[in-house]
Design goal:
two-stranded antiparallel sheet; binds flavin mononucleotide; 201 residues; Rossmann fold
């Protein structure tokens, strides 16, 4: 039995098209692997505080004392232990919503999700072999002339290297707010791609 961690950063909740895209993937995944456990972490429901000075100080003190099992590190420990990870977040301001950034700051803990070896080289400690990022975008950012401005998927792909997750995958629908695009058709197409992806994920 595998454990899939689903991190939901779809701020608009039931109105979120990203969440609908993720649901298409997860529904098919659950059908195909009934024995697997899907753990959902809803970032809008159980909220994390940004690492303000006092929170960072508390974290540093716990870390220095080697107390890595404290609740402060629950998200990092859960992330490190998951067999597979799916993150769903809309494209906001060329990246993703701040609630996901705050979550990632909590996940990035030396000694839990990554470490440094004796030579000072960084190495990942996460068990997951793959991470799927699901996103929807108002505009088109996969075209070569605009792709450099897309900083959400790139950020997560880079973090996968830090965490030691070798296989980064991306499922997206874009141009959903562009008057030249049939957003409904684009989303339906992406949902179908998501179902196909779920067969082998
Ligand atoms: C706060 C905010 C920021 C956004 N920033 C961008 C952006 O930089 N580029 C873009 O193409 N679309 C942007 N959008 C549009 C969303 O990417 C698009 O509507 C997406 O499908 C929303 O996903 P959702 O339905 O899951 O909330 C933004 C939307 C919001 C609400």
């Amino acid at each position: 039995m595998s454990e899939l961690l689903y991190v939901d950063a779809c701020v608009r909740g039931e109105r979120s098209r990203t969440r609908r895209l993720a649901a298409a993937f997860l529904e098919r995944y659950a059908q195909r692997r009934p024995g697997d456990r899907i753990r959902r972490r809803d970032l809008a429901a159980r909220r994390l505080q940004p690492q303000y000075p006092e929170i960072l100080a508390q974290r540093d003190a716990l870390w220095a004392a080697g107390r890595l099992s404290e609740p402060m590190f629950d998200d990092a420990n859960q992330f490190a232990r998951a067999d597979k990870i799916v993150i769903a977040a809309p494209f906001w301001d060329l990246s993703f919503p701040a609630i996901l950034r705050i979550y990632l700051e909590r996940v990035s803990v030396v000694g839990i999700t990554f470490a440094y070896d004796g030579e000072g080289e960084q190495r990942g400690l996460c068990r997951a072999e793959k991470l799927l990022f699901i996103t929807t975008r108002g505009g088109n950012f996969s075209a070569p002339e605009k792709s450099w401005m897309e900083l959400g998927a790139k950020h997560l792909e880079a973090l996968c290297t830090v965490y030691g997750i070798p296989d980064f995958q991306l499922l997206y629908a874009e141009g959903l707010d562009d008057v030249r695009t049939d957003g409904g058709a684009v989303l339906a197409n992406a949902m179908e791609r998501g179902r196909t992806l779920a067969e082998s994920f």
